[in-house]
Amino acid sequence: MASSTTLRAVTHRLTTTPVNQLPQIALFLATSLSDCAELLSAPQTQKNGKSDSDNAVQVHKLKSRLVSLLQDRSFEGRWTAVVLVKATVEAGQWEILRGCEPLVRGLLAILGKPDPVSTKKLCIITLTRIFHLTHQYQTLVREITTPSLPAFITASLNLVSVKPSSEPNRILKPNAPLLETVFHAFTSLIVRHPTVFRPFSAQIHSLVLSIIGAASSCAGSVVQLAQQLFIALHNCAPKNTGPEEWKRACQLTISSLHRTADHTFRAVVEQWESTDPSLRQASKPRDSSQTVGDDGPDQLGLPSWEGIHAGADRLTALLYLLSRFMTTQTTSTVNIPIGSILDLTTRLTSVTVPPDSDDASQTAIQLNPEIGREEREQLWSELPRIHVACMDLFLNMIDTLGNSIVPVAQNILEQALWIFQAEKFNKEVRTSLYHLIRRLLSLIGPTMTKANISSLASLFRYCCHDLLPQDADPKSQSQNQSSDPKSKSKSNLDSTNADAFLNPGLKNSHQSASSASSFPALHSAASQLLPALFTCLPIEYIPPSLRAEFDRTAILTRNKDAMLASVLNPMPIVKGRQANPSIMPFLAREYPEEMAVESLLRPRMPVLLGAPERNGFKCMDEDDDEEENNVARGVTYETTTTTTRTAQDFIGRSSFAASVDKSTTANAESTARDDPVNGHNKRSQDEGEGSLQTKKARVESTISPISLSAAGQASVSNTTATKTLSETSSVPATTTTPSVTAPSVVRMQSTSTQPEAKAGDVDDEEDSGDEIPALNLEPDTDEEDEDEDVTMEG
Fold first, then answer.
1. N or C: at which end does the chain have fewer Cβ atoms within 10 angstroms?
2. In this structure, are residues 167 and 161 in contact, taking their beta carbons and an 8 Å threshold?
3. Cα-to-chain-centroid distance, residue 659
4. Cα separation of 172 and 169, whole Å?
């Protein structure tokens, strides 16, 4: 009832409100229509009563009003109509979609009118949404999507480009604010309707390549969408040829990269040799007297470029396009050319910035004498961002292939080390390296050898250096000491900052604050790599000095994950060397409220409530009842603070009790053989008492250290332990079982503090039915020797 009232109110306001005031209430009306989803999606053909007929009338009024607003002369009316059409279609689903042909025609007409950019953008989004909603209904696809989609593609292309009549390719408009919206719509629709896009694939291909070739002059989001659309065009290939088209586009991209590198790297004599015979014959670069560049379109069809900076832009754009090939999902299985990609990256990473560009004799790179110094220096300045793009390609390959990248992971690691050794001064390079090394360590870190870790030690130290503040870094402290104003000559006092004398800590605090705030990406990458150094590397192969630096960095930077990883992965104890101290106190002091820290400080064995008794262990509730009963009988427990009792303690004590039982039985049999009369009488008495007691009394499995020593002496002297039960009928049926988590040996003793029990007291205890019987380790003699019995406590 509330939905029908809301729908009636919406149609009333749409009809009575002036058109120029509709944009002000468009948001309210769209929200109200979403509340009427149940009414709009209900079948209108089933009319069971007057209310259903009234609802159908309201829905018809709403659709008629929306169609009239789409054809309205004012911008405000058309803008409001586009917003409400999208809300109505999403709320009504199939019931609205099956009659939305007039709405689709009105939306397509708006794309050809001189409406504002916001109206056309909303119109493209609404049409894309309608085409997606009709995809699950084949009838609606044939009736609405297939006839309307070609007109939509043509209208969208006309909004962002111009097609000359004499050329098949399109030319991008200099100012196209709807370019991102159009590319996003094409990328999402081309996968579901490839046959409809097939006639337009050449026009879209030319438009996309113009953006990829001039990536530096376009927005980053537009370039990424252009790359995705370029890769998605392989779906428009004829039937069952999509994977071959995808591989062909990938190979063309690699060939274009090699051609661009031939021109860009002409200042050096490359030592790289391709494994592909077709690439060994490199293209001839321009004459050395001319500016570096490429004159014609390459294998991919990209336009010409000129200059080192333009060549570096082309290389980075194509590398990011190749990375997009790794991450874009495909509808069918494709073959990734891993060998060709690694061959390309080997060439790009082998050309690095020399340590001293002025002295070519000290560098491993052979320079081309025909190229001037200025071009070489420009190339050195562009190499870091090219290598950052290479590492981004490696990361995308690892993300896509996962564990399948392990066979070539060592090759990727070697190329990363080449870049680090030559270009570690660049912060962007280090940021990308930290991300790449962290992913590689998760795959091949546990299998690394001591030599591998030694080769990575410099990178690990740089990671710690990037995390530590400048005042805590030993290198910066030594530099500060060497640059002490007192050590300078008087001639340099005029150039010294006077504020440094008034506040010496100002410079250090500024450096420590700027180290993390100026480069947050570098600090974040190093913080993520530090915990992996504890968990992914073989601990026994890490040098103690390097491990100490890891721990120090984790403590000073308050890296919780790294500190936890350090505690959970301690250094192994080596014979002849002192064990490294744990950083547990620092972790407990820094994060006292963390549950992970609490579990490390106070580990507890979980108790299984309601589990059956096994091997002498009982549930907690039974132990509590036994303890309460023993306390009522006057028995106390004495415990000592030790570590958690292990299962071997209980097994050992249970086996000792079993040996006492066996020795008691053997002693009784020997007594019967020595004294037939008394032995026969004693067996008869035992049998008589056994008829009265249905359950055999058990001896407590926990005994005192004194009793254990006595038992050990008895076993050495080959004496036989005997068990005397004064009052068998008074022994309780259940015995006290020690708790599983009890940390100490449990000892039971009488509430009396006298060291020795008198004969009268023994008689009193025998008469009482609440006392646990004592175990006598001496053979049975006369009654006068009862005072010398050694009681087994437990």
1. N
2. no
3. 56
4. 10
* 560, two tokens: 């919780």
Sign for the CA dihedral angle at 456, 458, 461, 462 comes to negative
CB atoms within 10 A of CB 470: 20
End-to-end CA distance of the chain: 77
Give the start-end residues of each E strand in 240-280: 268-269
Q: What is the pLDDT of residues 191-205, one digit of tens each?
A: 999 999 999 999 999
Cα angle 746, 749, 750; round to 5? 155
Q: Which residues pair with 305 in a beta bridge?
A: 294
**Cβ contacts of 155 within 8 Å, gap of 6 or more:** 108, 111, 112
Q: What is the pLDDT of residues 733-769, one digit of tens each?
A: 433 334 433 333 333 343 334 444 444 444 444 444 4
Is residue 170 within 8 Å of 207, Cβ to Cβ? yes
Domain ranges of the chain: 2-239, 240-444, 448-479+516-603, 620-669+696-788
Provide the pLDDT for residue 724. 35
**What number of other Cβ atoms are within 10 A of residue 18's Cβ?**
9
Taking the CA atoms of residue 127, residue 131, residue 137 and residue 139 in that order, the dihedral angle to the nearest 10 degrees is: 80
Structure-derived torsion over alpha carbons of residues 543, 545, 548, 552, reported in degrees to the nearest 10:
-130
Contact 232, 267 (CB under 8 A): no
For the segment(s) 2-239, the CATH number from 1.25.10, 3.30.450, 2.60.200, 1.10.3470 is 1.25.10
- Tens-place pLDDT, residues 321-353: 999 999 998 888 999 999 999 999 999 999 999
CB contact at 8 A, 101 and 47 = no
Cα distances (Å, whole numbers) of residue 89 to 3, 128, 211, 270, 501: 16, 12, 34, 61, 72
